[in-house]
Amino acid sequence: MNISKYEQRVLHALAQGGRIDFLRNTNGRVEVVDCFNRDGFRLSDCTLGVFERLRKRRLIRSQGGAPYRITREGLAAVRAQLDNR
């Protein structure tokens, strides 16, 4: 599966325990997304377009109104990266 650089960054942050917070408009559609890593820092690469592509490919999912998290398919699709800690 072809995954862009920005999608890889978001998936990598989610795989390490991050989340995507969202706000819905009056029609019920997601209007604003913010991706946070496990330390609470905001990832600027997560735009609404990247979010929609990840959701359409079923790489992320939300259950019961909770923040979006990575799915098993997302974990399989993300490439390994060094964690510079």
Keywords:
85 residues; alpha+beta; 3-stranded antiparallel β-sheet; two-stranded antiparallel ribbon; 3 helices; UPF0386 protein K3181_08940; YjhX_toxin
Could you please describe the fold and organization of this structure?
This protein is α+β, with helices and mostly antiparallel strands and 85 residues long. The chain has one domain. It contains 3 helices and 5 strands, in the order αβββαββα. It is globular and about 40 Å long. This is UPF0386 protein K3181_08940.
By secondary-structure content and strand pairing, the structural class works out as alpha+beta
Rg, please? 12 Å
Poorly predicted segments: none
Q: Order of strands in the sheet with the most strands?
A: 1-2-3
Mean pLDDT: 91
General shape: globular
Order of helices and strands: HEEEHEEH
Helix content: 25-40%
Measured distance between first and last alpha carbons: 29 Å
Number of helices: 3
Q: Please describe the biggest sheet, giving its number of strands, its sense, and whether it closes into a barrel.
A: 3 strands, antiparallel
DSSP E strands, number: 5
Number of domains: 1
- What is the strand content? 15-25%
